[in-house]
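Can't paste images in this forum, so I'm doing it all in text. The chain is below; anyone willing to post the predicted structure tokens underneath?
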Amino acid sequence: MHNVVDLNLTSKLNKRQFVVYALLFVGFFFPISSQGALLSSRYFMIAFLTLVAYSFFIKITPRNLIFFLAINVSLIIFTIAASFWFKEYSFGIYPDFFLLSLLLTLNYTNLGRLKYIYDVQLIGTWLIILLGVGIIIGNPSISHFLTNYYSAGYEELLPYMLEARKPVATFGTHSVASFILFFLFFLNIQTYKVRGKMVYLITSIIVLLLLIFVRSNTSLAYSGVAFIILFSTFIKKKSSLFMVSGIVIAIFLYVSVIDPTILDVFYEYDVLSILTSKDNGLAGRYSGTSVLAPTIDYIKHNPLVPLGLAYSNKLYYTDSGIILYILRGSIILASAIYFGFYSFLKDNLLNKKNTMYVFFFFMIFEIGYPILIDPRVLCFIPFLVVYLNHLSTEENVKSQRLYPGS
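Text version of the structure:
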């Protein structure tokens, strides 16, 4: 009888995996524009679907409740205080902060081994790959489709990305696209290490090539990290070098013989100019002439008067997570977000190395963009955690079979 109860419980718990799968596809593929016009209502729909999906995994503990309250209460209090000086508000950003605070209360450790998770990951990744390759080869149907339904930021942003053949897929901007592409590389190369199947190595290599094609500060940084991971994999699995060599040769033949125009995108690919640009990267964000300069100056001179959800057209609100959070809620909000996110990863990831890796990769990105409140990323994080846990479980099972006494 006890075994029957355990089996039924496991079956009931594992049904929630489909909620995580659905959340992944909402984050990756839910349209946010119509005929190229950005629709705020689509963002609220993503937020609503995310909220519903999160509700299946809420687990309140004193620690994560503190982070939840610190984020929401600080925003409310500072909004009220800022109302004495600022008369405009940006309440539309609050759902992102609320969803992030709710994320910190979730627990995925009891899902166990999941069915279809590898297939779901491969399907999602290859859909992104197909869109990315379509952008690189200049497929007009894919460009038209993406412009209609996945425009983001401002009107000219996605058309510029498509014209420059940056494989941003459904993510609109090279920053978020680089972030997601890196983690898709990371998931596939980790899966290859555990399962040893070539499909994951091939997928990771192709995703890495897309990441390189994005050609930005972010993609350069993450490509460097990806190459380190890749070479460490080759040291352990030297046979995989032959597969990678074959992929590189095939791509070289394609761009040399069939479509040499693809190489045009690299003619002006000056790594030094990208890294030292005053319009992008660290210099473009933190120098005295950057768009963030007035915001940083405001924080320096008004450390006790954060904006909350108030708004001023004299300040800039993107391009740095840490600056945005301090501007909105001082060091209280920034600390609650970063310590809360680390606590969430520590509580949810079974492999503590993965906790450090994921936190580090997120923090690199937060220097240049507030990725933790991006709606698509808030949909992706649960799948990322569940997938890495599934890999850890499978790796442990294999280890016990090989070394039963360890």
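The beta strands are 33-34, 37-38, 88-89, 310-311. The mean pLDDT is 84.
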